[in-house]
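Sequence, structure tokens reproduced for absentees:
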Amino acid sequence: MSLSLGKLKLDGKCHVMGILNVTPDSFYDNFFDTDSIQNRIKEMIDEGAEIIDIGGESTRPGSKPVSAEEELERVIPAIEFVKSISDIPISIDTQKAEVARKAVEAGASVVNDVGGLRNDDMIRTVSDLQIPVIIMHMQGTPENMQKNPQYDNTIEDIKIWLEGRINAAESAGIKRSNIIVDPGIGFGKNLKHNLEILGGLNEFKGMAGGVLLGASRKSFIGFLTGADDSDRLTGSLAAAMIGATAGVDLVRVHDVKETRRAIDTINALN
């Protein structure tokens, strides 16, 4: 049985998740005032986003956490605005159980936890809510994750870690079929690790209810191309197309219009 994220059904094709960072300090594309937030939401919907991922806390390398109260002040108005104009599904990008619960009460239908359900309160909350959850692999925390990350076997180590988190989720009453795994490109990985993940994305298929790839405009593209984050569109599109051909279910992206056109082309072959 296919996993449904609100009205979006994971049907074997690749789908586009648009990123909305309602933060002042994300590494790319910050929207921090009401007009810019609302305009970006409308723009992504018009460009073909199939789900919008809303986050109120930066997780870029070296970033520091914010309070749940501040995070809620940022994300709840954005969620409420989306709900007022569209039935597009909403994902809440948070590591905090309180934020997840209140975001779902406001209209979010998916929890995207870059912490990988390492917080017991988050596991209990997702179990109570009985909604889909994205479990992302991260070695360390955003503050220290890029300080010499190490793996014996990148793909296998990540799979073992994800399987452990899936087992913990199942023990708390979360169905495996309700889980999407994200290998966490850029989160505790160097260039070699990121490329190994891109080349082995098919290895994550079948672990749970779906696979998400988040590679948009990340630093490994800059290492490969010499481009700064404002000039990484082509590299981001290449990564998304690699993901689509490997069978991932969702690509999380900043550039919705361009990615949707590329993904639609790949999907036409399936």
Remarks:
- The chain has a mean pLDDT of 93.
